[in-house]
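Protocol step 4 of 6: structure prediction from sequence.
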Amino acid sequence: MLELLMGFFSQYGYAAVFLALLLCGLGVPVPEDITLVSGGVISGLDAGIDPHIMLAVGLAGVLFGDSTMFLAGRIFGYRIQKIKTFRKIVTPQRFSLIQRKFEKYGLGLLFVARFLPGLRSPIYLVAGMSHRISYITFIIMDGLAAVISVPVWVYLGYFFAHNLDLLMTYVHDVQSIIYLALGLLVLVIGFIYLKKKFHSKLSSVTKDDDSE
């Protein structure tokens, strides 16, 4: 996949990277991290491709693709499930699950979604369909996550462009670190949620006792 994308990007430059990221955002099964790494690699191999411009293109492509999914959900609402392509992305079961997760984790789910391939598109669609979140809020949360993830992949590709075997090792290592960090984040959020719930119940019991 890396060599295939590199060949395509080398031929068509920034526009090809932007298009590939847009397709990633629309749910096409192309790994976003490998796409960004490939963009970084060609900027490290081709003197005519600037890594900083590639970073800007990467951020624009990611945010544009994510926005497309969110706005599709916002504009078409539940009618979008009548479209076969989107029905595959958001099945009724997945829709119900994501709705429950939104109720539990709120905006945190939008932030985390950026790091969850396969779940990112459904989460953004449901966020738009729910009308609970404004587009400005969405783009802020998604942008904060993108500012963390996109530079990592682009510059990783750039700095290790001349050693692809070592690069892929680092890509897998970074992916593992991201999943570990997400796991810890979920545990922390879950702990905070349970703690608040416990204090809420304790407060309720205390008030009941005082009223008696």
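Step 5 (inspection) to follow. The chain has one domain: 2-164.
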